[in-house]
Amino acid sequence: MKPLSAVIPALSFSLALALALGLSLVSTVVMADTVSLPMDTLPSRITLPSVSPANSALANRGAYVTRTADCMACHREDYSGGVPIETPIGNIYSTNITPSTRYGIGNYTESDFKKALRKGRAPGHQIYPAMPYPSYHGLTDDDVSALFAYFQTVPIVDKPPEKTTHLPFPLNIRSLMLAWNVINVPSTKNRSGLTQTQQRGEYLVNNLEHCGTCHTPRNLTQGLDKDRYLSGAPLGKWFAPNITPDNDTGIGLWSEMDIVTYLRTGTLDKRAYAGGPMAEAVAHSTRYLTDEDLIAMASYLKVVPAIKTDDYLIPVNVSRLPQPVSNSITYNLLEQKDYLAQAKASTAVNINNSSISGANNSGLNSNSPKDLYLAHCASCHGVDGYAQPDARYASIVGLSSIRHVKPDALVGVIAFGAKGAFNTAPKMPGFSKDLSPAQIASITNYVRVTFGGLPNSDVSAADVTRVIKEKS
């Protein structure tokens, strides 16, 4: 058996739970010193589901707390579990947390529930920190009670998850987590000098929404590196970006209204579009939060210590960005299809006239960056990058994710694809098996220059090969 010092660092839980901006909230409070944003200008809040007049007030408050804790992202919409959470040592699968007495938490007392949330200690065994109990450690008694009351009311799923966790020896010895917990729980400490609104935001960001779980790098024991809190971290095939208020590498140039808008809608025009784990966080959690709670989160994120990383965001040059061909093309499917067909036909004519070799059956040049984009990307994202947001196809014009000095995140999305968070959202396919590294590099460079407004981009096939190897 390996010594504990060798085992614990191996527990590098990349935690696909919830968030490329990963945030979670709580019950509504009155904020006396509040609110700097005009409420009537905020994006509309989505009505909170799963609130029944037959439930107690405590249980219905728990429904809101559950949304702020983003439980669905890992336990499914029916809380039946079985969702894989990728880690370097194998997948950890979420559990059934419905009131099933055989397969769920139906036999839990409130004390059992509290220990599981705060200490990672379920009746009879330790929980792996893929469940973010290092962050939930700071939950208030009132919110734990509300959560417990709510989970007594959800429909029972009386069957086990489709898959359960089976890690290799000695990582299957759950008692090892006791030593890990001593070092890494709690994951954050409360700061002094915050306003009442910012204190609420701190609680939401650090505890319920557990943003640091995804956005904070790991230390040698694979706990959160508190000196680099929220400065960005790898997350399986994704990268959760720097969300500290650094102007060059974080979100320092975002206003509080920008942050609220992003958390409510998942989009910021020509700047950001929530994908992957963050799309799930918006879909299941942040879009349901009250205006006051979103404002509190935004206020707190503006005052966390700014951390500058080496992955600079290249400022957008608006004059270099394409304009939509018409005011209707982003929602008119037929117009979008016709414009794509014209673009392909025009390119094919140019190729045929110049007798360029390497054309595919559609007449497009399989090695031309533009033609690769037209063949593989434009049917969803549009010829000019504006796509059809109403149908949940993402506009990519000006996005920060394509303007980073390091192109790894964009390469990863093109190579491995992205799952839509909503049931009706399309899934972006990955192209690592259909396109060569050189072709993926060509698309990456084309997207960065054409839709990111960059003067140039020099991603190589070797860069693509490295990213695929690192993230596979």
Instruction: Provide the gyration radius in Å.
Output: 23 Å
- What are the segments in which pLDDT stays under 50 over at least 5 consecutive residues? 1-32, 351-359
Biggest pleated sheet: 2 strands, antiparallel
Q: What series of H and E elements makes up the topology?
A: HHHEEHEEHHHHHEEHEEHHHHHHHH
Strand content: under 5%
Could you give the order of strands across the largest sheet?
A: 1-2
Overall geometry = globular
Describe this structure in words.
This protein has 472 residues and is mainly alpha-helical. Helices cover 36% and strands 4% of the residues. The chain contains 18 helices and eight strands. It has helices at residues 4-7, 57-68, 72-75, 110-119, 133-136, 141-151, 176-184, 196-208, 212-215, 256-265, 276-284, 291-301, 333-354, 369-376, 378-381, 408-416, 437-450, 461-471; strands at 84-85, 92-93, 121-122, 125-126, 233-235, 238-240, 267-268, 272-273. Strands 1-2 form a two-stranded antiparallel sheet. The chain has a two-stranded antiparallel sheet with strand order 3-4. β7 (267-268) and β8 form a beta hairpin. The model is unreliable at 1-32 and 351-359 (pLDDT under 50).
List the main descriptive attributes of the protein structure presented here.
18 helices, mainly alpha, two-stranded antiparallel sheet, 472 residues, single chain, 4% strand
How would you summarize this macromolecular structure in one to three sentences?
The protein has 472 residues and is mainly alpha-helical.
Helices and strands in order:
Layout: H1 4-7, H2 57-68, H3 72-75, E1 84-85, E2 92-93, H4 110-119, E3 121-122, E4 125-126, H5 133-136, H6 141-151, H7 176-184, H8 196-208, H9 212-215, E5 233-235, E6 238-240, H10 256-265, E7 267-268, E8 272-273, H11 276-284, H12 291-301, H13 333-354, H14 369-376, H15 378-381, H16 408-416, H17 437-450, H18 461-471
Helix pairs in contact: 2-6, 4-6, 8-12, 10-12, 14-17, 16-17, 16-18, 17-18
